[in-house]
Amino acid sequence: MKMEKVNEILSQLTLEEKVKLVVGVGLPGLFGNPHSRVAGAAGETHPVPRVGLPAFVLADGPAGLRINPTRENDENTYYTTAFPVEIMLASTWNRELLEEVGKAMGEEVREYGVDVLLAPAMNIHRNPLCGRNFEYYSEDPVLSGEMASSFVKGVQSQGVGACIKHFVANNQETNRMVVDTIVSERALREIYLRGFEIAVKKSKPWSVMSAYNKLNGKYCSQNEWLLKKVLREEWGFEGFVMSDWYAGDNPVEQLKAGNDLIMPGKAYQVNTERRDEIEEIMEALKEGKLSEEVLDECVRNILKVLVNAPSFKNYRYSNKPDLEKHAKVAYEAGAEGVVLLRNEEALPLSENSKIALFGTGQIETIKGGTGSGDTHPRYAISILEGIKERGLNFDEELAKTYEDYIKKMRETEEYKPRRDSWGTIIKPKLPENFLSEKEIHKLAKKNDVAVIVISRISGEGYDRKPVKGDFYLSDDETDLIKTVSREFHEQGKKVIVLLNIGSPVEVVSWRDLVDGILLVWQAGQETGRIVADVLTGRINPSGKLPTTFPRDYSDVPSWTFPGEPKDNPQKVVYEEDIYVGYRYYDTFGVEPAYEFGYGLSYTTFEYSDLNVSFDGETLRVQYRIENTGGRAGKEVSQVYIKAPKGKIDKPFQELKAFHKTRLLNPGESEEVVLEIPVRDLASFNGEEWVVEAGEYEVRVGASSRNIKLKGTFSVGEERRFKP
């Protein structure tokens, strides 16, 4: 029925109308282009009213729908929910929760008149300095793929589309439009493509966005091997491929390679070397350089998806999504994404402890990163506001000192807020060591506990740097931690650090000075409430790291980041190959600061009763988790497989399955049963997937380095699978 409708529309289109359908209308609201009917949307397709085709609307992004909250000559508001950033969502390891977040976001997409959400972003954390790691899930493809699948299912359950991005190996912002990523086919298939493969097969996203970078010499948006052979033929993808905004350099090559929709259109508006794509494509058709069959195929791919979209069905959207309900979902998601990194009997705080709150981030709390992953919520609760609202006992005088300090500093030339190219207000980092030792000494006497906030922000278009004030703490931050710790410890009082960050920082040089470290990430609009509730134990942290915290930047395996030549990288070689993240640290015996999968709780869990069985097709792993502590909590358990030594070099172990328990009360337990298809055990040998014969070890852990149970199974004879 659907294909008949699509072919009927296709048969009525003129050549020029078809060409228009594969090119966007230009970036809405900029360069003199008209605004989208949904102001702030990232792109639109050309309408063809004659055959009943509306303009379809596409909008960002991974932490919430990004549209303008207000519109000219319109007193209505169009706020959306600011959810936790993706790295925090992945820290929940909770598929059901990701699906709930997807549903909430999908409802906002639909009710604000948008057809496709440009999310989730699922590039791998190859290097901790990538500026967009906050909006990617993990260094591991299985965790990324599972989180993305659940999120996509949630979004698409609302009758709108999701778009998984950026396909593929877009693991840095530096020179992202041109850099040539040189990577082996094995590393591509096992690490960088794998998460996308899981998401495509499990959740059937409407769309895939091709990446800016080149892949082994060819732009991703002009790479037929990637977009046709791998994505469509091997994985059976049935949606449409759109380019990242202004990606590639040749619209004709893009269409031939299987990039169906060229976005946002009018590339010449940002790049003087480009022409109008519609003219270029029309010319190629006339000159026989592009066949009408190829064009028809692209149009068909786009239409067979978009005939399901709200715009095609003339859906009457309300502009009134349930923001109250979605705020609760954002809170729940953040509550499960907080990671407790250190706890020397410091947390949760005892009833009515008086808190001295240090750090400008208590007021200028970072809700998320910048760029297309930014959001415009009705409100964003700062850490200080959350502590006030929850009625915690805190030093009000000290809070006032911080308020005055920030106000004064933000009026100076050096520290005044400025707008970046995205229109986001950027606030230069303020010095944190403005309180004298004497003042801190007084504060230590009259308060029960110190809480220090350390914040970081990064965003699209630039990478982070391995310098003080970014990957390392600045001298003023270190000074503050040292002085506060010394003064409070002299009074026998505890010191807690809150990391309000979007990607790892160095912790080893200072962590022993403090008693507790809470990684609260960037939790969106509810950040302050979540922080207050974790401090008091209303929330028991159950998040675990989706990415390794290295001891030092020099330990990171992706030493070629961000490519050569250093001052203007044109190519980046993935020398570390498959040894990304824990696969490197575990295989080569490098000690991390906090390993992949790590996270503490306010209670304790015991693992027992491991049962491993393998019938040649499916590996079944069964075990029990019991809450042996004094508080209700949830536990994320992880199943790693260690392969036997064979012809193919393999990492020491690889994550193959995971499970998050329900909320277990003290003394309660849960039976966990996980099934892993034999194909998931395979390595890529350059031509096909191979499961080598021999004895495999099953390692069930609370983290990649805290293995609680071990079992074995044997594969009698080698198995091979075509890609």
Automatic annotation (TrEMBL):
<keyword id="KW-0326">Glycosidase</keyword>
<feature type="domain" description="Fibronectin type III-like">
    <location>
        <begin position="635"/>
        <end position="704"/>
    </location>
</feature>
<dbReference type="InterPro" id="IPR036962">
    <property type="entry name" value="Glyco_hydro_3_N_sf"/>
</dbReference>
<dbReference type="InterPro" id="IPR017853">
    <property type="entry name" value="GH"/>
</dbReference>
<dbReference type="GO" id="GO:0005975">
    <property type="term" value="P:carbohydrate metabolic process"/>
</dbReference>
<keyword id="KW-0119">Carbohydrate metabolism</keyword>
<dbReference type="Pfam" id="PF00933">
    <property type="entry name" value="Glyco_hydro_3"/>
</dbReference>
<dbReference type="InterPro" id="IPR050288">
    <property type="entry name" value="Cellulose_deg_GH3"/>
</dbReference>
<dbReference type="InterPro" id="IPR019800">
    <property type="entry name" value="Glyco_hydro_3_AS"/>
</dbReference>
<dbReference type="InterPro" id="IPR036881">
    <property type="entry name" value="Glyco_hydro_3_C_sf"/>
</dbReference>
<dbReference type="Pfam" id="PF01915">
    <property type="entry name" value="Glyco_hydro_3_C"/>
</dbReference>
<keyword id="KW-0378">Hydrolase</keyword>
<dbReference type="InterPro" id="IPR002772">
    <property type="entry name" value="Glyco_hydro_3_C"/>
</dbReference>
<dbReference type="GO" id="GO:0008422">
    <property type="term" value="F:beta-glucosidase activity"/>
</dbReference>
<comment type="similarity">
    <text>Belongs to the glycosyl hydrolase 3 family.</text>
</comment>
<dbReference type="InterPro" id="IPR013783">
    <property type="entry name" value="Ig-like_fold"/>
</dbReference>
<protein>
    <submittedName>
        <fullName>Beta-glucosidase</fullName>
    </submittedName>
</protein>
<dbReference type="InterPro" id="IPR001764">
    <property type="entry name" value="Glyco_hydro_3_N"/>
</dbReference>
<dbReference type="InterPro" id="IPR026891">
    <property type="entry name" value="Fn3-like"/>
</dbReference>
<dbReference type="Pfam" id="PF14310">
    <property type="entry name" value="Fn3-like"/>
</dbReference>
